[in-house]
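Salicylate hydroxylase
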Amino acid sequence: MKPVKPFTVAIVGGGAGIAFSPNSIEAMRLIDPKIREVFLKLATKNEEKEEEATWINFRSGERESQLIAKVRTTDRDKTGLSSVHRARFLEELAAMVPEEVAQFNKRLTYLESSGGGKLKLRFEDGTTASADAVVGCDGVRSQVRRFVLGEESASQGLAFSGKYAYRGLVPMERAKISLGEYLAGNSQMYLGYGGHLLTYPIDKGATMNVVGFKDMDSTWDHETWVLKGRVVDMRRDFVGFGETVERVVKLIESVDIWALFDHKPASTYVKGRVALLGDAAHASTPHQGAGAGQALEDALVLSCLLDDERIRSACDTSKAFAAYDAIRRPRSQKVVSTSRQCGMVYAFKGPGGDDVTKIEEDLTERFEWIWGVDMNEQVRDACSLLG
Ligand SMILES: Cc1cc2nc3c(=O)[nH]c(=O)nc-3n(C[C@H](O)[C@H](O)[C@H](O)COP(=O)(O)OP(=O)(O)OC[C@H]3O[C@@H](n4cnc5c(N)ncnc54)[C@H](O)[C@@H]3O)c2cc1C
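Predicted structure tokens:
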């Protein structure tokens, strides 16, 4: 057994269906093979054997659902679009964390340096804690980000991506009666002018998950980012997207609306012994299904750095954090920008407009650099910066 390190790191944070790509699943395996096992146990895949490795079948909504591109994952496990219920997966992950190292249901309200290199954390319930280092994984509206970026966080933080998404669920039996077994049971994205609609199976095939993305020209003026939506508005928004999309939308009985924001590139993810991880560092739009995967990659690289034998004391943690920032910032920020571009391509606003040949070329290449990364190399590169 490895010796326990003589310093404490406080990890702040922990946040319906979510799909994980090959790089995400590989990061899970490298962090702890049990995480991948739990994921694979819970995951729902495309129903048909020959669609197992399909990430998404991209179709033109209005052109009778004509197939534009079949994007497949190229990993050994043929994971395709494997999705889990977020809360269920988190429950299983939480059960794997030893009780003595985690406290749940704490909400950070303030973080400050408290002298002697220690950091003081204040929580909403009036309690406080101190740590030698802090990792903020507290999501897109992170408190820890404020500490790390200060003014920059306030002045160049979040940007509305110009899209909102309707999220709804349809019992698979009903979906299959209306759409047929194949379209309902396997992941499809219907592209159109100014919007796109995604469907895929969840709950081990009992439910069809629907996400309808719509462009808007104005800014997002609502106080909250998640609103109760109206089915009648969704139907109106997707008129002209073709018969299949209209059938999908008719099946929806209730929807939520999510405004989609992302982060402008931060100049750093670290400040001394405080680091940002996941959406707190680089929140992205969901168009490449890559946001949570980047959080997993962050976690892998950071944990390997902290585990390195050259990180011996609390003072060394800032060295590990600096190496983490150098390796993770460029890649994760590139994901944020390509994800936004991808949303444009889906809405026929990319460089190829509505030219289906150009869209096919674009989508066939757009995912591989994210999925095909060598995670061990990222870890090696980061550790080599420790000197
Ligand atoms: C509509 C939509 C669909 C998406 N689909 C996918 C997908 O299919 N695949 C994918 O890879 N990504 C997807 N993403 C992106 C993905 O959800 C995020 O990248 C991922 O959840 C980031 O994980 P995180 O742990 O960094 O942040 P979160 O999941 O936001 O978790 C942050 C956690 O911190 C907690 N927290 C917040 N503030 C505090 C505080 N002050 N103190 C303590 N705790 C706090 C929150 O309660 C939450 O539990 C999607 C995003 C959206 C909006």
